[in-house]
Amino acid sequence: MTRIADLAEEYDFLEPDDRYRLLIDLGRALEPMPDALKTDATLVRGCSASVWVYPTVRDDGTLHFLADSNAAITKGIIALVLLTVQDSAPASISATDFEAALAPFDLKNQLSSNRTQGIPNMIALIRATAERYGS
């Protein structure tokens, strides 16, 4: 999986249209989420598009998230968020500064507010999951 710092460097050099394409490509590269997991319980509230996030615990105790959206760019944003914490220990996820990790992408200025309004809710759900499995 690409490191978020490497991706931020690439993103910085791209024109706005290419940035959208990069986000869409990130979303396409997400591990497929089975439709059976796309339920009301895994739905992230407050997103303009439908977004589902489902955590799994690996044998080594790290968390692995399956996620999907019905909107291509939103799915790319989810992939970007997950890139910061995928397959990490719950304590590491809890300590992650998502805002700092995502800052180089300047999503609030690059995308419409409709596309970014659910990001805090995605992050809150991931943090809550880490807290739940970390205790």
From TrEMBL:
Species: Sphingomonas donggukensis
Gene3D superfamilies linked: 3.90.1010.10
Domain of life: Bacteria
InterPro entries: Fe-S_metab-assoc_dom (IPR003808)
UniProt name for this protein: SufE family protein
Signal peptide as annotated in the record: none
Residues of the Fe-S metabolism associated domain: 14-128
Similarity-based family: Belongs to the SufE family.
Pfam families referenced in this protein's UniProt entry, alphabetically: SufE
